Amino acid sequence: MPDVGLLWPGAAGDDVTDDVAVLRALLAAEVAWVRAQAAVGRVPGADADAVGAASAELGGAAAERLAREVALESAGGGNPVIPLLARLRAAVPEHAATIHAGLTSQDVLDTALVLVLRDAAHAAVRDLDRACTAVARLARTHRDAPALGRTLAQAAVPTTLGARFAGWLGGLHAARRFLAEVAGALPLAYGGAAGELSGVAGLINDPFVLVDAWGAELGLPVPPGPWHPTRTPMTRAAAALAETCAAFGHVAGDVLQGVRPEVGELREPAAPGRGTSSAMPHKRNPVLSVLLRRSAIAAPHLAATVQSAAGLAADERSDGAWHAEWPALQQLARHAVVTARLGAELLEGLEVDTSAAARNLHIALPDARGVGVAPAIVDRVLAQLAATESAMEES
User: How far apart, in Å, are the Cα atoms of 106 and each of 5, 90, 236?
Assistant: First the structure.
């Protein structure tokens, strides 16, 4: 059964984290292994080209159908690599012995998940860049706009809209840095049957030469040793994806408060068909923020599954804990990708009513004067984050 996003508003058309993307990542890992063998002189380059062509055919127009078939057959061996490998070998039987030689299913599946997570992180980081640019503009524009500060759901003291937006920026910027750092560090997975590389050692005198060539083919850093039961790369990825959802969840929470009719300080960007109600045609629902909050609620529990699986890893290959990671990581990646895209759209088109903000402040605190150093906080946040970005670019 293909996942077309029926219960995933905002995810339709996702080609970064869906099952077809996973299938293509699995094929990419297998092809890169053959290309690595060619790079170290173990097989002719023409062999790698033939396997690459067969993989491209399998992962082409009929990839969705193949994904369904592999999913159905994967119950037999407990993972999708085994039936997919059979299809790839059948497509080029003359190279069957070279495909997957020396590897184990976990090498390929973990590496494929790393590729999917890396692509998802890069997509989310691009949209986080958009979001940070948009919210920095909001903070600068509304630096001095008085607003009611609220704590514990009650009127507190005066602040500015710009200071509130600068708070959003701090969280989004931190999430962007964390996610980009994690994406760049996601490593190749290797080890063979039990993390001892005996299968690879049977192919070449120095197995690490071949492993390094595999990493080079995929553009992935090669860790010092196998990490089959040591799930740190996945727990860090899960944490970064969840933090992205949390940062946008904070934004969504404030927007959902600000768009209430009795508050009226904010409005989501309008678009044809957006925010409609099946029963109340007068409504303009804040659907972007609603969907951001959805992901902020779901992501921590998915990340917890990944952490729990890491804590239950055993021996040289885990029995069940590893398997529990796969859907959690895929769903986390989707939440982060969709959240960053919708969040950027929200912030780029967010409408701010400074008159409503001033009115609400006066009603709640009619005798209040001043906004503390809120404008200076905006300046400080913008300046320091700009300096951080400049330093990162220079390094």
Answer: 28, 21, 19
The predicted pLDDT at position 283 comes to: 67
pLDDT in tens, 91-142: 999 999 999 999 999 999 999 999 999 999 999 999 999 999 999 999 999 9
- Number of other residues whose CB lies within 10 A of the CB of residue 359: 15
Question: Backbone phi, then psi, for 154, in 5-degree steps?
Answer: -125, 160
Please identify every residue annotated as catalytic: 277, 317
Burial string for 64-97 (b: 16+ CB within 10 Å, else e) reads eebbeebbeeeeeeebbbbbbbebbbebbeebbe
Domain count for the chain, please give it.
2
CATH number, position 40: 1.10.275.10
Domain span at residue 138 reads 104-189+227-395
What is the domain-level CATH number for residue 156? 1.20.200.10
| Same structural domain, 89 and 122 | no
CA angle 169, 128, 267 (to 5 degrees): 65
Same domain, 21 and 148: no
- Cα separation, 122 vs 181, in Å, equals 10
